## 1
Amino acid sequence: MSGDTFNSYGSGDQVAMNGGSHHIGIVKGGQPLPAQEAVEALRRELDLLRGALVPDSVRTVDDNLPVVADGTRPAAQRRAALAALTGAVAALGAAATPVRDLIEGLRGLLGG
């Protein structure tokens, strides 16, 4: 493998460069980050509650969950989206406790 370069980025991803040609791309090998895991858990919990939400709350979830999931968005935007999600599930009371717990955890991960 003379002339090949292997670099590792982030949480275990590997990039193989073969002399500047025949690039094979990124080999995904890392574990999800805690925020990614929390967002996926939030997505699953919101899917479970979707049928109990009024149409306006469903739209709020649909509009704001992608903002929360987008790691390129500023933390302030993501925190605002989390606040909107909290409001969307507020009427569900105790049934929304798992969602509220996940939102609080994500707020902590986002520094607020």
## 2
Amino acid sequence: MNSEAEKFAGVDGAKGAWVVAVLAETTLTWTACASVTEVLEVTRDCARVGVDMPLSLPEHGYRVSELEAKTFLGTARSSIFHTPVASVLDAESYPEACAVSRQLTGKAISKQTWHILPSVKAWRDADVDRDRYIEVHPECSFRAMSPATVFSSKKTGRGVGQRLASMMRWSEHVDLADLPPGPAVDDFLDAAAAAWSARRFHLGEHLTFGTADGKDRIVA
């Protein structure tokens, strides 16, 4: 396969919606999508797609992939929060979800986790090809992209600048002036990092946290 002629995509959640970054050769373009169904349509001709959303759920305890990714990130480990157990998705309220989680893991879930459960469920229900749609964590991607950089928060100007500088080493055309309205800048940057990891996975140059297959895997 000629990877230079193929397209790769990265997907990041953006307040109930989605940002898709498509990497074609060295050019990045972005699209805002309202649903996972729309994301799948936009990415249907991409060789690999990196998704910043849990694509596997544990039955008990924590995923090994997340524990390994936290170790990789070191002081930035707090950017990864633990994926809830699968049974939590059936909860009808936050207290119920916390009770289920406590029973199976010993700990409740955070409000942040509760609010993303609809997105987690949407990807679970989509039943995508787990060899083509791979789970990524953008902070791991940026760390792999620029190991010597001590990244500031992506919510700060310095953090945005650091991530843009890292991206410019592999993408010749990054035009933020044409970004779709709505999502924050860090959502677009995270989607781009996910696309970078998707291409690395396709070429066999990636880092793997967890299992080699898609049962419990995060790729960088």
## 3
Amino acid sequence: MATTKAARTAVKNDINTLKDDLKVLGAEEKARLREKATATEARLRAKAAEAETRLREEADVLRERARGYYDTARVRGQEYYDEATERFDEAQRYLVERVQERPVQSTAIALGVGVVLGLLLAGRRR
């Protein structure tokens, strides 16, 4: 019986030693995983900062490009406006000259156009 008791005690001691070893290994592995997680987090933060910087640079480039397109469109729009204003002024001058040259004929034409428009508008109401 003494051998069995000694064997049991030896097995218990071995099991306790294994438990202690597992605790130590678990703590070591936990520490290693924490280190890896910290390193990975640092790498991810660095990549995120790098991506943010790149995105800001791209946004600046796009903003400048859009500003260039806007300025070009504004200049062209102003040119078209100036040209249209000039043509309108020319048409107005031409019309005034023609009316001054033939006032009776112009009045008759205006009266005729007014009558036609009046008939058209009256026809829609019915």
